[in-house]
Design goal:
Elements (H helix, E strand, L loop, with lengths): L2 H4 L5 H5 L5 H4 L4 H15 L14 H10 L4 E4 L6 H6 L8 E5 L14 H10 L5 E5 L4 E5 L6 H4 L1 E3 L1 H7 L9 E3 L1 H4 L3 E6 L6 H12 L2 E4 L2 E4 L4 E7 L12 H6 L2 E4 L6 H11 L9 E2 L3 H16 L12 H21 L3 E2 L3 H6 L2 H4 L6 H6 L1 H21 L5 H8 L12 H9 L4 H4 L11 H17 L3 E4 L3 E4 L23
Parallel strand pairs: 1-10, 1-11, 4-7, 7-10, 12-13
Antiparallel strand pairs: 2-3, 5-6, 8-9, 14-15
């Protein structure tokens, strides 16, 4: 316990003489508190939602408006759009500590208690009523909505054991075991995936939101709770045809749409922030910019691909997990080769397929092709787009000519960087083109090898050269005339990384 916390008033009489006077706290609701603190943060120019990127001009202003309007609000968005993270940051807009009547299960306001136990305590002890303190982090309650949630979980239930121990009638208010909503009193109550709540639970929810009264086992209890309610949901479910009841929808003040990163740079910034890249390791990990861009471009392409379910979306966790896996594969290779520097290659992105395929919900066409095939095609297209950003218009005729004259190169992901650079240097003009990626002459072999492989993969993505299981990178086979009747067609087997 900090010294500042120890010096806080411990009785109601001392509280009245402190900065937490009755004039300040008696009639100030949680929504007023959020509003006032938000206004102060805006005036001081503070960052409102640290760690939330890409929402500064879209979602954040709408959330600010909802708080200033004292609204309960809902965030509608697909998975992986930082909805839960954003609502958890709302606690930063609460007072650091707030007083409540010590021992109260629902953290009653010392000046306006609502539960029977606290009213009785206050009438008996008066100014000597003990006061406890609640930190802002303890004033946030979150519940994931599932179909098995009951009204007892949310509101409360009669506790016959409590009634028996105290010798009270079972209809007495003091025998109530409070649920999540009352226990969140004077704080923020969040429900994730709101439409998954059963209809009768939604009815109980909007009733306590609007009227402040509930019925527990047929016994009416007036609970004018002081709450700020926030929700999250998938837009597909939050419709008249979905699983949300209209009266509850009507009582939610603001409906705010979240979204995926709008541009590649935003996505890269989010992925860099969230991915575990700065890791303790015997080797130095360097992640080239073009690798980060390819990983992020992959997610952007998946969100637009008709084979991927748009209603499910492609979470921002895909590029985060993929980049972590890519780095891990490069780290593993460097450790085996006893190298000091680990640099991810495009080859490592194919090794990261387990981190990609599990996050793609496929439509029927995608299911026919298979998750691995769809993911590999997305990687190839992503490489092609990023290749164009660095090398579009670059003369690569000498490289293509080297393959056209019969040259081929089969790369092994376990080969050390020095050996790989030696192999790649044999391709006419290849290493020279890596300068377009910002490489200097004294870069480590791991950096040079990764850059040269990216150039070859970009040529393959644009079908300037081919790549097969047997031969590795080779000349692109020319389109042939339709075969004559009776002549067998030689199969063209494309190599896929494993």
């Amino acid at each position: 316990m900090s010294r500042a916390t120890q010096e806080l008033p411990r009785t109601l009489g001392a509280l009245r003489e402190s900065a937490f006077s009755e004039e300040r706290l008696a009639n100030r609701s949680v929504k007023d508190e959020l509003r006032n603190n938000l206004i102060c943060k805006i005036q001081r120019g503070e960052q409102l939602f640290p760690g939330i990127l890409g929402y500064d001009d879209t979602v954040v202003p709408q959330v600010v408006n909802a708080i200033l309007s004292r609204h309960n609000f809902i965030l509608l968005g697909l998975r992986g759009q930082a909805k839960t993270r954003l609502i958890r940051l709302l606690t930063n807009m609460l007072d650091e500590v707030t007083p409540y009547l010590e021992g109260c299960e629902i953290h009653d306001n010392p000046y306006r208690p609502i539960c029977r136990r606290c009213r009785d305590l206050l009438s008996g002890a008066g100014a000597d009523t003990p006061i406890a303190w609640l930190h802002r982090d303890q004033r946030y309650v979150e519940k994931l909505a599932t179909p098995d949630v009951t009204i007892a979980d949310m509101i409360g239930d009669i506790d016959p054991i409590k009634a028996a121990r105290r010798g009270q009638d079972i209809s007495d208010e003091l025998t109530v075991h409070y649920g999540l909503l009352p226990r969140a009193n004077r704080g923020i109550f969040a429900i994730n995936e709101l439409p998954d709540l059963a209809g009768k639970i939604q009815v109980g929810l909007f009733n306590i939101m609007q009227e402040g009264d509930v019925q527990i086992k047929g016994y009416p209890i007036r609970l004018p709770l002081d709450l700020a309610l926030v929700f999250t949901a998938n837009p597909e479910d939050y419709t008249a045809r979905g699983k949300i009841i209209t009266p509850l929808k009507d009582r939610i003040g603001s409906e705010i749409r979240t979204h995926y990163p709008a541009v590649l740079d935003q996505g890269i910034a989010i992925t860099e922030q969230e991915a575990w890249l700065d890791r303790p390791s015997p080797v130095e990990v360097r992640v080239p910019d073009y690798i980060k861009e390819v990983v992020e471009q992959l997610a952007f392409l998946a969100r637009e691909d008709k084979r991927v379910d748009k209603r499910s979306g492609v979470s921002q966790r895909l590029p985060i997990s993929a980049l972590e896996n890519v780095v891990s594969n490069a780290e593993r290779r460097a450790l085996k080769a006893r190298e000091r520097v680990a640099v991810p290659r495009i080859l490592d992105l194919y090794s990261a397929l387990p981190a990609i395929t599990g996050k793609l919900e496929l439509e029927y066409e995608g299911e026919l092709k298979g998750g691995d095939t769809v993911a590999r095609e997305l990687i190839r297209v992503a490489v092609g787009k990023i290749y164009d950003q660095y090398l579009e218009g670059t003369n690569v005729a000498h490289i293509i000519q080297w393959f056209d004259l019969g040259g081929s190169l089969k790369l092994d992901e376990n080969v050390d960087s020095a050996t790989m650079v030696k192999q790649l240097s044999g391709i006419q003009g290849l290493m020279e083109k890596t300068k377009a990626l910002g490489l200097s002459a004294n870069e480590p072999d791991a950096v040079r090898a990764a850059a040269a492989e990216f150039v070859l993969e970009g040529l393959y993505a644009h079908r300037r050269i081919s790549r097969s299981e047997e031969r590795g990178f080779a000349a692109e086979e020319k389109k042939r005339e339709p075969r004559e009747e009776g002549k067998a067609e030689r199969p063209n087997i494309r190599r896929q990384y494993n």
